[in-house]
Amino acid sequence: MKFFIDTANLAQIKEANELGILDGVTTNPSLMAKEGIKGRDNILKHYVDICKIVKGDVSAEVISTDFEGIIREGEELASLHENIVVKVPMIKDGIKAISFFKSEGIRTNCTLVFSPGQAILAAKAGATYISPFIGRLDDIAFNGLELIAQITGIFAVQGYETQVLAASIRNPIHIVKCAEIGAHVITSPLEPILALLNHPLTDSGLQKFLADHKKANG
Ligand code: G3P
Fold it and tell me: Can you tell me which atom of ligand 1 is nearest the CA of 28?
């Protein structure tokens, strides 16, 4: 399972990258706004800055919702760097655009996927990745992980090449369960990734090892 970080914060991207476990980055317009990145030129430059930090796919989201606009924006984003993946919303014109991008050799990430039917359509259109949102489903009392399991099952049965990129991760259990279910990729904020490191027995065990070494060696 690949690990992507879900942020536009360069310091956090660097921190995750330095762990040596990072395979890519996903962003969205809300995450860009959170970092205060605004204006077309600054936004495009920020994507290039991210691509310089990480050797892996970087999802850059279009803000157009009509076919022509999505194509225009997507082509510009894809031309920024070979690792850019154009993130396209799960809407009718988005699906049309994903088919078009596929024929042009531009890779895509279909975002805002909340049902197996949407996932099937995006896979049929030739999306490189689809992003089902776990946390936002959990928030409205639907089981987000069950959706991941259903989609990975369908894609395996159908032999779709599209990768399931589990998004809207809120905690380390989401990551562990995605690995168990067979999601191809998770994209997570830094905190749940770092939380995977923690166990109280690791901490107490290490303290004891160090104390015993000190006792014996002075
Ligand atoms: O980038 C899409 C997704 O990961 C958003 O997460 O926490 O805003 O639901 P969240």
Answer: 1
